[in-house]
Amino acid sequence: MARRALVVGSGAGGSVAAMVLADRGWDTIILEKGPNYFSDLTAKRPRTIFSDDELKHDRHFSRADPLAEPRVFVTPVKGTTPQVGAVQSLPQVVGGATVHWDAKTPRFWDIDFKKLTMLGPADNASVIDWPVSYGDLAPFYEEIETLIGVAGDVSALPSSPTLAHAPRTKSLPMPAGPGMYSSMLVAEGAASLGYHPFLVPMAINSVPYDGRPVCTNCGFCSGYGCTIMAKIGALAPLRRALLAGAELREQTQVTTITHQGSRATGVRWVDAAGNPHRESADLVVLAASAIESVRLAQLSGLPDPHDVVGRFMMFHWLPTPRGSSWVSVCTPTRVAP
Amino acid sequence: MSYCSQAMPMDRRSLLKRTALFGAATLLPAALRAEAVAAAAGPALRIFTKGEYDVVVEATARLIPGPSDDPSEAGHPGAREAMAVRYIDGLLGALRSDPARVYASGPFSSRGGTKTDDMERFVPLTPAQTWAWERRLEGWRRSYVSGIVSLDRLAHGSFVVVSTSTKDKILARDPEGFTTLLFGHAIEAMYSVPEYGGNADLVGWRDIGFPGDTQPMGYAPNEVSSSSGPDPYVPDEVAQKVIGLVSAA
Question: The complex's ipTM?
Answer without folding.
Answer: 0.91
